[in-house]
Input
Amino acid sequence: MSTYNIAVLPGDGIGPEVMAEAHKVLDAIATRFGLTLTLNTFDVGGCAIDKHGHALPPATLAGCEQADAILFGSIGGPKWDSLPLEQRPERAALLTLRSHFDLFSNLRPARIYPDLAHLSPLREDIARRGMDVVVVRELTSGIYFGQPKGLEGEGEQQYAFDTMRYSRAEIRRIAISAFEAARKRRGKVTSVDKANVLVCSRLWREVTEEVAKDYPDVTLEHIYIDNATMQLLKSPTDFDVLLCSNLFGDIISDECAMITGSMGLLPSASINGSGFGLFEPAGGSAPDIAGQGIANPIAQILSASMLLRYSLNEVDAADAIDKAVVQTLSDGVLTGELLSQEQRHHAHSTAQVGDYICQLIRQAQ
Ligand code: NAD
Ligand code: IPM
Ligand code: MN
Output
């Protein structure tokens, strides 16, 4: 019997609500596949600031270090927005964890399934043709982490600065992640940049071209970020793997999530060179809907599936979750944000969607 230790960090806002459903799903999966999954829960984010005075308490970091993988919810919210940047949950906890474990490779798969095209806000004929992309986002460098960063001067002369910075080695390793992903998919990498303006993007293109030479079976195209955001809406089938720097990948993955129907559908895997990973929804703590039991738990549940697939190599268990999720969506068991205003009275709650997915997993036994 395989035994795994998973650090569970629910966080703030809808984090604990959707995490409760992922927890149920992992319990159902453990029973069906005979896995022993030990889930240890730790405080992180704004709630950890309130309780322990720090967004990433030492016990939480230690729990993550001892785990086989981390399942993360989401953090942040209006209550902690006025803190200095370095104390805010986003930087003090999430960016610190990404950097601490060197989780440079962020995979964000987004898909419109043919019979779920009606969930997409795209024009019907475009949505019906589908979309199946994975955003491969560099996660531990670029403008998020580049130094110097700061605020200087006073009055109208005051200025702020961030540094976008990439080394060849950093570009090379994320490009390799993208080409490896493309090789297992439809064999196309579209590298997203702003090489008409940014020096970083010029180096990005150069190194990406070098990596492409080792992958003759994969096609490489380059596209400017502004055009990419537009082409994704116009012709999403043109894309397979989108290779992005940290900031561009952040922006484009929210767009991809919405193209599939909701921010609440997009999972993500953040992985280091040893296969250790943190798995989290691409979206945030959604303060506008927190506490109402209406958040979509699917991004969190699919993040648990990615954890099983990428960090634990439990591929059958991951497939079972993915299949149950698609079935749930096809059966019309949907949270409110996936429904039109007129249909919203048919909405299912966060817990009802989680329960339905668990039931499908158990029935398939
Ligand atoms: P958000 O992703 O939380 O919300 C954007 C929109 O998407 C909102 O309308 C929200 O209701 C909706 N949404 C998101 N997840 C949903 C779900 N599961 N079901 C239904 N609807 C969902 O982005 P925001 O409002 O810009 O940020 C809120 C807070 O979350 C901020 O503090 C931000 O920094 C933080 N954040 C955290 C993470 C993370 O922890 N990984 C990611 C993104 C944003
Ligand atoms: C994401 C989030 C984070 C990011 C924030 C919360 C720091 O938006 O994971 O997409 O910008 O990376
Ligand atoms: Mn984001």
